[in-house]
Amino acid sequence: MDRKKVALKLMVVAIAVVVIFAVVPSEASAYTYNRWAAANYAKSNWNSNVPGSNYFGSNDCTNFVSNCLKAGGWPEVYEPWTYWQHLIFRKKPDAWYANSWTHWYSYTWGGANNFGKYVGIYSGRGYTRSLSYTPWYRYFKIGDIVQIDYNKDGVWDHTMIITDITHNDMYVTYHWASSKYVSLNYLKDNKYPNARFMGYNLKDRF
């Protein structure tokens, strides 16, 4: 075979290899979720405003959990540089960001229903897990998420983070009527027996 043709083919192969490795992220570039850091953040700030963040008042539950996940290593997505970018990005179902200085927040950051869709569908960082899977300690970990739909209308109303698990129960921490280590059995069976609950398993690497 002509040497020039061989050299050309080798060059094409070399370029293809470079392109493949440049486009496909390596395992080393994946993010790691430190669920212990997220849970510790929740336990440290359960009864106070999130440091460096706006407080959403009685609707702070999802903002609080988002900050817990950020403390656990979740990177923000679609962070806008300008107000016009924010107007475009804030409604995107796969956006997740907050800026307390500019008061720019994606709908997924502080809205329980949008957050649930983001985590379970669009983020690639977690997936839904029915709480009917028992015992819970086999299917959930500290740092996973639980949401409540109070009226069973298909809209998630409240977001909580799991901060402790035993063989018989899971304990959640949350803002809005700020509480720490609340028994999930108590919430399901006594406080909100007619509500719908959903769990979210979060990936350790994504």
Question: What tags apply to this protein structure?
Answer:
single chain; 8 helices; about 210 residues; two-stranded antiparallel ribbon
Written account of the structure:
It contains 8 helices and 8 strands, in the order ααααββααβαββββαβ. The chain is α+β, with helices and mostly antiparallel strands. A 6-stranded antiparallel β-sheet has the order 3-8-4-5-6-7. The termini are far apart.
Helix content: 25-40%
Order of helices and strands: HHHHEEHHEHEEEEHE
The averaged pLDDT comes out at 87
**Number of separate helices:** 8
The main sheet comes to:
6 strands, antiparallel
Classification by helices and strands: alpha+beta
How large is the radius of gyration? 21 Å
Order of strands, widest sheet: 3-8-4-5-6-7
| DSSP E strands, number | 8
**Shape annotation:** globular
Kindly report how far apart the N and C termini lie.
46 Å
Low-confidence stretches: 10-29
Q: What percentage of amino acids are in beta strands?
A: 15-25%
In short:
The chain is an alpha+beta fold and 206 residues long.
Write the layout of secondary structure elements.
Elements: H1 3-23, H2 35-45, H3 61-71, H4 83-89, E1 98-99, E2 104-105, H5 107-110, H6 112-122, E3 126-129, H7 136-139, E4 145-149, E5 158-165, E6 170-174, E7 179-183, H8 184-191, E8 196-202
Antiparallel strand pairs: 1-2, 3-8, 4-5, 4-8, 5-6, 6-7
Helix pairs in contact: 2-3
